[in-house]
Amino acid sequence: MNMTDTNQSETLLEDLGDDMIIDQHDVNEVSDVSSTRTRRDIPQMMRKIPVTLTLEVGSARISLEELMAIGPDSVLELDMLAGEPLVIKVNGTPIGRAEVVVAGENYGLKVIDLDGLNLDLMTA
């Protein structure tokens, strides 16, 4: 606790008056326990935050004129080569590469590598 915090705590205690007695040691102890608990629980809380995982096939840069000409039978060439690993993104941020697989009746992804994800920060 720095001097500014100590001075603010002392001023607060003086403002409470004589009819309410609080030990400064108890105030510091509660603050320290609360701070420690918050730091310890943050990684656990972060694990429960929902994220959107997407697999990016590729992209194409076209003009508005070309966009207006697109119809039901149009084919647009993407910037990825056929058979090349696709980009895994979490909330729009690339974290690795994967292949498309069939998982039951749905498509799935088989992770090839993860290079933009640091899960070590979330272990506690």
Automatic annotation (TrEMBL):
Name the predominant localization: membrane
Instruction: Supply the alphabetized keyword list.
Output: Cell membrane, Cell projection, Chemotaxis, Cilium, Flagellar rotation, Flagellum, Membrane
Instruction: Give the matching Gene3D superfamilies.
Output: SpoA-like
Q: Name one GO cellular component term.
A: plasma membrane
Its membrane topology = Peripheral membrane protein
Q: One GO BP annotation here? A: bacterial-type flagellum-dependent cell motility
Q: Where is the Flagellar motor switch protein FliN-like C-terminal domain?
A: 46-113
Localization in the cell: Cell membrane
**One MF annotation (Gene Ontology) recorded for this entry:** cytoskeletal motor activity
The record's section on InterPro entries has: FliN-like_C (IPR001543), FliN/MopA/SpaO (IPR051469), FliN_T3SS_HrcQb (IPR001172), SpoA-like_sf (IPR036429)
Question: Which family is this protein grouped under?
Answer: Belongs to the FliN/MopA/SpaO family.
What is the official name of this protein in its record?
A: Flagellar motor switch protein FliN
Recite the lineage of the species: Bacteria, Pseudomonadati, Pseudomonadota, Betaproteobacteria, Burkholderiales
